[in-house]
Structure formats: structure tokens, C-alpha cells
Design a protein that fits this description.
It is a single chain. The chain is an alpha+beta fold. It has one domain (3-100): Double Stranded RNA Binding Domain (2-Layer Sandwich). It has helices spanning 51-59, 81-100, 113-131, and strands at 3-4, 10-11, 16-21, 37-43, 70-75. A 3-stranded antiparallel β-sheet has the order 3-4-5, covered by helices on one side. It has a two-stranded antiparallel ribbon with strand order 1-2. Strand 1 (3-4) and strand 2 form a beta hairpin. The chain is elongated, with a radius of gyration of 27 Å.
Length: 138
């Protein structure tokens, strides 16, 4: 079943390489026997993703994306391999969705005349307040 990114974009299973590895951390004797963590690899350049997504992903400054354009995720949050597999696939989909979002261009605004005047009035009040802190001459 393909990994669905949006209504129009999905990734076939054969493009995502999943392998079971041993999880790190505490877990007793079981942790040395069972490969419950998942190592996910996804090659951006050789994928069927639209060019828009490919360009955006390759431009990301993310430590999970290698210079060759391969996304590497390690999922070991859960105790079972199946849950970790789902987690890794969801994290991959979220990364691709995030790369596909276009940030709205910020429109520079100028402060209003009233806000400038209020700021200057407050500065004058603050200045006067600080002047009164000095030594008192009798």
C-alpha cells in the first residue's frame, strides 16, 4: 500500500527501504535479541515524487538528508517493530508535507503615527522617572 502524502501525491512501497535493527537503550535481555527498531531509507532523486517536492526536499538543511539526497530515519520509540514501522513512515510523510508547504511572503508594515507618539511619550516618562533617582541636593 503506497504512502499517501496528499490527495495527488503518494509514494509506492518499493521506493521506501525499511530494515529492522536492534533498538538502543534499556530493555533488558530482550533488547539484544529482537530487532524492534526500524531503519528507513528513501532516495529523493530516484523517487516518483513530483519535481517540486524533490527540489524542496533537497534544499532543506536537515541532518536526516544526506548529500546524495537520501533521507535516513531511525524509529525506535515503540516496543514493537510494527509500531516503529508506522512511526517511521508517518515521520517521512510529515517531512515531505512540510517541504511542500509554501511559506506566505511577509509584507513589511510601518508603525502608525499614533504608535510612534506613544512610544516616544513612554520614553520621555521613563527618562523622567530615571532622572528622579539621582542624589538629592539640600
Amino acid at each position: 500500500m503506497p504512502l499517501i502524502i496528499s490527495q495527488r501525491v503518494s509514494i509506492p512501497d518499493q521506493e521506501i527501504e525499511l530494515s529492522g535493527i536492534r533498538a538502543q537503550g534499556a530493555g533488558g535481555q530482550n533488547v539484544n535479541k529482537v530487532s524492534s527498531a526500524i531503519h528507513l531509507r528513501f532516495d529523493i532523486r530516484n523517487s516518483s515524487l513530483p519535481d517540486f517536492y524533490k527540489e524542496r526536499l533537497l534544499r532543506l538543511r536537515d541532518s536526516r538528508i544526506s548529500t546524495e539526497g537520501v533521507i535516513t530515519l531511525k524509529a525506535q520509540r515503540y516496543r514493537t517493530q510494527e509500531r516503529n514501522r508506522e512511526d517511521a513512515l508517518e515521520r517521512l510523510a510529515e517531512l515531505i508535507r512540510k517541504a511542500g508547504q509554501v511559506q506566505k511572503k511577509r509584507v513589511a508594515t510601518r508603525p502608525t503615527r499614533g504608535s510612534k507618539e506613544r512610544r516616544l511619550d513612554e520614553k520621555k516618562r521613563r527618562s523622567q522617572h530615571k532622572k528622579l533617582r539621582g542624589k538629592v541636593d539640600y
